[in-house]
Backbone:
């Protein structure tokens, strides 16, 4: 009976496999003494003033449903945050929805805009969550491999892909600073891409979740250039070390936001009120909470980048987020999953296989440096020993 019922479930589920990232992280966790540089989560605690706001919310019995699109106060705070930080202007009453993290925001957006047969353009390597959500909507991911261009999408490749797929293209997704590469885009690069996109009647999904973690110039959202096409996704998880509070948000023109609100409302009703009260404190009185975290991440980036380069790994120096995408040297195991397993068991350092991030990612590994400097120093020491051991083995074989 159970088997027959499983066969009656949504057909698209057969196209989806459990997350490679979570699966490998769990596998590596079973290795004694492992140092995990796998999951993309800040190792900082939520700021004290934000935690206190959450406690006050509980003490004041704020345990009832919030409005579906979020409390008015939080939406106002988000609106002010986006204006001050990135020069984006969204009406708090009609153009902002508070979601259960950026994950729900991505699901809500893709579920709302996609019909069977639609196509979604994705520059790869890319955070893989967009792919199953697209498939569940009976739409098709179209990958644009950026690995030959420093992991930056060129206007030429974008124009070519749009021409190849025509009217079937419903949306293009931009996630920068990028998970997994740490690459972000300069203003001139964004403007060049926007000039291509404004000629096409498609949605531009801007996943800006790492916007507060840029090393150098401030983040520039594609929405600055394409306000009528853009759907912005962001949240408190990375900027304020609030992953477990599950606060994200969507911003879009009012007519689009109204439609997005339908899926959002019938998916989760509303985000937890206590978490929203904590996020209000974060965006209102902790607007620069991410600054000290960013400074520490930059120190770690510089250390890991230098160490991995010395160990023979070719890396694009990250300009944002907290990931290093390192190319596996030619004399080592080239399959990224096999290499990551070998590294985990022999060096007791866990990283994520690059093949998990789509075309252009195979042959690479992703290192999360959202870990203490002490852990990173020991991990780099272990990787150096692993590399040296491989060299000695090759020398003996020759």
Residues:
């Amino acid at each position: 009976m159970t088997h027959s019922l499983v066969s009656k479930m949504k057909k698209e589920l057969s196209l989806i496999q459990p997350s490679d990232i979570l699966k490998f992280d769990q596998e590596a966790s079973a290795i004694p003494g492992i140092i995990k540089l796998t999951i993309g989560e800040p190792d900082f605690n939520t700021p004290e003033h934000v935690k206190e706001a959450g406690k006050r919310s509980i003490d004041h019995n704020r345990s009832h449903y919030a409005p579906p699109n979020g409390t008015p106060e939080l939406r106002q705070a988000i609106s002010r945050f986006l204006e001050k930080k990135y020069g984006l202007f969204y009406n708090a009453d009609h153009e902002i929805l508070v979601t259960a993290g950026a994950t729900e925001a991505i699901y809500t957006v893709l579920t709302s805009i996609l019909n069977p047969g639609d196509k979604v353009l994705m520059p790869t390597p890319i955070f893989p969550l967009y792919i199953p959500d697209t498939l569940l909507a009976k739409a098709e991911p179209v990958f644009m491999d950026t690995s030959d261009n420093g992991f930056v999408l060129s206007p030429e490749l974008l124009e070519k892909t749009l021409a190849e797929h025509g009217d079937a293209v419903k949306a293009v997704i931009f996630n920068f600073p990028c998970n997994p590469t740490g690459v972000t885009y300069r203003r001139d690069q964004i403007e060049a891409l926007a000039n291509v996109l404004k000629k096409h009647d498609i949605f531009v999904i801007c996943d800006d979740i790492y916007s507060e973690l840029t090393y150098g110039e401030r983040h520039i959202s594609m929405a600055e250039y394409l306000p009528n096409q853009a759907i912005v996704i962001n949240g408190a998880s990375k900027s304020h070390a609030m992953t477990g509070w599950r606060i994200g948000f969507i911003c879009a023109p009012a007519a689009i936001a109204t439609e997005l609100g339908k899926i959002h409302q019938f998916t989760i009703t509303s985000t937890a009120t206590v978490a929203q009260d904590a996020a209000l404190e974060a965006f209102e009185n902790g607007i620069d909470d991410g600054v000290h975290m960013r400074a520490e991440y930059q120190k770690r980036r510089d250390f890991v980048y230098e160490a991995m380069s010395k160990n023979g790994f070719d890396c694009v120096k990250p300009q944002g987020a907290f990931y290093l995408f390192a190319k596996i040297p030619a004399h080592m195991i080239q399959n990224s999953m096999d290499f990551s397993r070998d590294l985990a068991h022999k060096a007791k350092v866990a990283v994520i296989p690059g093949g998990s991030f789509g075309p252009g990612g195979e042959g690479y590994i992703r290192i999360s440096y959202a870990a203490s400097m002490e852990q990173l120093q020991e991990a780099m020491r272990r990787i150096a020993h692993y590399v040296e051991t491989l060299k000695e083995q090759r020398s003996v074989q020759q």
Observations:
- The chain has a mean pLDDT of 96.
- The first strand starts at residue 35 and ends at 36.
- The two ends are 60 Å apart (CA to CA).
- The first helix runs from residue 2 to 6.
